[in-house]
């Protein structure tokens, strides 16, 4: 499996790009050095698990889908919404296919199936992961607002109206009302 | 569950700290603005899944354990190795217990069990997650070396000698030999 | 012209994004916080003038074309080369048309004509601006190399083989041989 | 011209410093990592062209003057206003003379004439470039205000009262009234 | 003394870590890239001198104690308050003993005595240095508030109620009322 | 003393600028985000004490002089060496006089005397502080070299040939030979 090991190591280096690629939407509201895709991904996966367990779904699976949901951005970067009218959206499954072609079979199938399930968006776990993606953005918008950024309202609103689970909606509702420092006061 | 929703949102904000807390060891070798704990965590979880599926273990579970393995650092920061002689290591289970006490029951149990399984370190998935933690550090050390940092050797060595799975060892071996840009050349 | 003034101010704010959008290719070689599109654009415009005046072309016009050559990236970000297989390249003229539609007529025509001339790439000034775009990247690659980044060779090579003016080629040849600090030694 | 090529490459490296030198005034209001001189220069040149075309002046020439207006700061840095009582202001023409002495004749004359025309400040293009310098600072002040910085008022006021073209004044007036995100709403 | 010189140089490199270690509390309120321990230390030492001279104490001694008050954080990092319940506070004297063991005798004694006097906290100079530590945090909290950070109130309050000198109290009182830019207006 | 308290608080805010002003020379060698003046100042003061105690001078006084040696840079920024031919060097005593004019008498005299003694440069403590300024730069140059920066040689050389105490020279000699991580290996 030495070729397989090289494939895995090379894929590990490729995933490292997510630690450097910035989430581009925040540049629009004036954040100079916004969060990386990796930072967004970690909390999305954690939130996916929390939402899923409350919804009676499989939390490890929901977290797992979230873990790969933006992994194609090593090749395209994080495309802002304003790019939509000017390009066809890249197909995540196709990028994933290319990214994983040097992997051993089990690894390759595992990643491809996760991306496929997330993009298809039918399973309850996929829906929890998608809600987590929105809730994560909502929390970050509130954190930037509390760091001084004035025009995060559009991000908060778009996150709130796009949620499909009861838990996702309730967490979003709570997030806009409590202090981001509430956990310290307890 | 509105109290539960507040607990979940508050925990979400607490986890946000991992996007800002820096991995302290890299300051020692001269990296001014090193990766965040969240960035390390995302790739650790991805690597845990890859290692686990190759080892015949449950990849979603291994990734899930990795996802929470440093989540206590919201409260303590990332303690460098040089701190070891001067303090008792904080008990991760105790911090997790405090972090999750405002969560709804299912969420609380889920996080606590994941931290407990990782810390106990007996299950094959826990061992894959622990290897992923080391391999992630190894990849990052190589990435910093390629960005100019001279004294990453100690980090590379310590990662390599602490691996417990065959896949972890092989990926580490491959990583020190290939180019971090090998994925672009294909 | 108060509507025109609002259009100009709004366009000014949109161009401000170029001060925050990062040049994405450098993330691939491990630069965490690379130059902005605006930083690249300024030196490209300066180099375009220098190349043009040596080539007997109109330096102000060449600089002017360079000034708008990446201005569409406010809407798309800086797409890395690795994205090419997965999307149709956005049409710069179409984005420019949208960006300038709220401008007074003379401003609108001015920007559109500059983008059109650059993209058509036939005039000598457009060719000088395009060479400047490459030489700027070459200088930056050397500057990153001297700051420790190991794998800039691919960027240096691609810049050098894509030059169309005699001056561009000679400057590139000189750049790889002198010290970036040569100006201080004089 | 191989000596000329070295001179041009060396000058290109010197201009690269403008990508790193920070605009020092923003440190006073608490911005830790403010814009570079290059970032300011790019938008100043773009605004100079827009103001000039509306004023019936030569837009490429106005942009060209703006492109070199702070290029002397490679040697002095960006001197804050608070330094004024303690030093004689360095002579931009003298610095430019030194910076360009290794350039081929046409390049040397081109840069020196641009700096001279800007500093003399008599031509309509020079006045458009100078207004663009102020309007750029005004837009940046508003962008920092919207990112949370409280005390940008002095910068906004000083920019507004120092404008000499009708277009400059109208754009400034519009800028303080519209949202920096107005271009996205269209 | 060549061994002594190596000890001094090595200690100098260790102290360099304080230029990279971030003050962790600010991460809690959302500051992504907060001040370093070194930055905090410089102003603490300056304030200690100012407070001491007004209190009739020895200003050079008070500044000197402040200069070493966080120097142990090279080994532990800056532990946030939220870590308190989970660990025994490291003993600064013990860390200092280890840090200084390779130093020539006079240097060793000098640093150890300074840390001991500060930690004992009985001398008037130690009390001035401790007040300076709080006032410095207060000034920084106000500076972050003016840069947009919303939730600095807890830091301001905790600083104000923990002051032991009359001068410390009066400076704190003044700081919350004046503008951080008052020095420019004069 | 309420006016005095306002003066002290305002001076404290002014000194805060040193936490943001960057040391400009490092931009020349390609460091994008170099150390602040405050970071340099802290280690200079610590080194001044160490050098002084070995030289038989008063360590607290030497550290105290170092603490104010660049405090005038709140008003001028850090002027790079390349600026020297183009301006008269600002008079530190005159800036200090202005900075301290709103302070209570004892504070005012204290700061002015420290700056005067340092600038006069006759006392043994002033000479130790001046050597510390050079040794600090030397250590930082080595730290940047180990972080990948290629062209720090000129900085190392200029520091080494400008030292006036035996201890300063020996520490500099040792610094270029040992590893910056030697303190961790013990």
Automatic annotation (TrEMBL), chains A, B, C, D, E, F:
| Database matches in SUPFAM superfamilies | HD-domain/PDEase-like
Looking at the keywords, is Methyltransferase present? no
Q: Name one Pfam family in it.
A: HD_3
SMART domains reported for this sequence:
HDc
Query: Which enzyme type, at the first EC level?
Result: hydrolase
| Catalytic activity, EC | 3.1.3.89
Q: Which residues form the HD/PDEase domain?
A: 33-147
Provide the reaction this enzyme catalyses.
Answer: a 2'-deoxyribonucleoside 5'-phosphate + H2O = a 2'-deoxyribonucleoside + phosphate
| Alphabetical UniProt keywords | Hydrolase, Metal-binding
Q: Which coenzyme or cofactor does it need?
A: Co(2+); Mn(2+)
Q: How does it assemble?
A: Homodimer.
Protein name per Swiss-Prot or TrEMBL: 5'-deoxynucleotidase
Q: What species is given as this protein's source?
A: Winogradskya humida
Highest lineage ranks of the organism? Answer: Bacteria, Bacillati, Actinomycetota, Actinomycetes, Micromonosporales
